[in-house]
Each structure stands twice: as structure tokens, then as C-alpha cells.
Design brief:
Length: 105
């Protein structure tokens, strides 16, 4: 998919830090609640997966919203981070027309 729907403004550094701090502070409890709902938070070699914010924190994503966080292994999470940066750069191929509902499938 090369259609980008990520055109949210960035937060200022203090707002971004506050969102990051909120996520950092709530992460253990979030993982416990996840375990109650879905089973243990995924891990690999004893290392828990990173929590990926679909709408990232720097662009105003809710740090603790269940519908905004998915667990990903670190390597995949780093790949997603790079792709998000390309998407937010607002340059081809991310600016091409894509599907009507990019997350619908």
C-alpha cells in the first residue's frame, strides 16, 4: 500500500514528551490488561514486543487507547517507524491514490 492517510500535525516537544511519558508509565498495566483480554503480551527470547502506536505519539496518537496499540517485534517496529517517516514526508509514492479504506481488510 502506498497511499498515505497520515497528515496529522506534529506535537511540540513538551507535548510529545508528555505523551511518551504517559505511555511509559502505563505500559506495565497496559500489558497486564492485554494479558487478561488476549493472553500474555508477546515476547521473543524473554524480551517483550514493543507497543506500536498506529497513530504515532508525535502526531497526536492516544498513548493508551486500545484501538491504537499493537505489539510488534523490535525489528518490525523499527521498519514501521521508517515507513511512517516516509509517509509523513508527503512525497511519492506515499501520495498516490490508494484504497478507500486502507485498514478495512
Amino acid at each position: 500500500m502506498t497511499n498515505c492517510c497520515c497528515n496529522y500535525a506534529t506535537l511540540n516537544p513538551a507535548q510529545n514528551k508528555a505523551a511518551r511519558d504517559k505511555w511509559d508509565d502505563s505500559r506495565p498495566e497496559f500489558r497486564e490488561q492485554w494479558a487478561k483480554r488476549f493472553g500474555a503480551w508477546p515476547s521473543e527470547n524473554g524480551n517483550p514486543y514493543e507497543g506500536h502506536h498506529i497513530r504515532d505519539l508525535w502526531h497526536g496518537g492516544n498513548p493508551t487507547d486500545w484501538d491504537n496499540i499493537l505489539p510488534f517485534p523490535k525489528d518490525i517496529h523499527q521498519t514501521l517507524f521508517k515507513l511512517y517517516n516516509q509517509c509523513y514526508a508527503n512525497a511519492p509514492p506515499w501520495t498516490s491514490v490508494g484504497t478507500d479504506y486502507p485498514y478495512g481488510e
